[in-house]
Amino acid sequence: xxxxxxxxxxxxxxHGSFKAASQHLFKSQPSLSMAIKKLExxxxxxxxxxxxxxxxxxxxxxxxxxxxxxxxxxFNELNLFAKELGAGVEAEIKISLDAxxxxxxxxxxxxxxxxxxITTSLSLNVDMLDELHRKLVDQEIDFAIGVxxxxxxxxxxxxxxYTSMVPVISSEFYQKTAATLNDLKxxxxxxxxSSPNASQRKIFGAAKDMKQWFxxxxxxxxxxxxxxxxxGRLPMHQIQDSLDSGKLKILEVSEDxxxxxxxxxxxxxxxxxxxxxxxxxxxxxxxxxx
Length: 290
Description:
By secondary structure, the protein is α/β, with parallel strands linked by helices. The chain has helices at residues 3-15, 18-25, 29-43, 59-86, 103-114, 129-137, 171-176, 181-184, 218-226, 236-245, 276-286; strands at 48-49, 56-57, 92-98, 121-127, 143-146, 155-170, 189-192, 212-215, 232-235, 248-250, 260-269. A hairpin with a 6-residue loop joins strand 1 (48-49) and strand 2. The longest helix is centred in the first third of the chain and has 28 residues, at 59-86.
């Protein structure tokens, strides 16, 4: 029995067929069939029932597979641990920040951490929801700081900060009307999406029965609202100056239109190899709690 045979077994079950597993593993379909056949012959068991269109586990196969999963998990943990032990000091740490993060507070923390670690560069990108989580799952970044909404099994999160998304409108429009719910229905709600194709269910804070305009940039959203083209929710730390100067007014007109508390978390992919400075930065940020 080999590790590759167990990975092959897991992939066939996970993807539903030998063909799909071969595409995922970048191996030929006959080589996968041979790997399972040798595994069956070694122990004298029949793992798959191949009478149907898609392979299904036999009773023996199900029992064998139930023991395979924890064995693979332990091996993967050992493999990751060994890679991290062998990793030297990384040249760059890649981090994605959610657009609603309080960047001023986080940048100060980065500065304190990076000064004694000047041999490592810091690459920061601002992303939104879907895109941030896609980068995590695809291991394009070392970790992220943002809103954790994904239930992907490879991701783990740790809450560190809290902010509020506050419904606001330009003071000019606010003064011209009573800013009631009916008034607002004449104006679109400005909403940020991570991309034009982002799924509707991941639109944050959309009000019911309202016209909606979309942008992929938080700064653009603020400008549209300031110019009286609509209303929407913005992070309190981003709009505090505009509130203090009277350019923006807070809306509290219904249960559907009110401030929303938001939890900001450190998020990483458990399967992503982390260098020593990346682990130190994660631990350093983990101490940051409101």
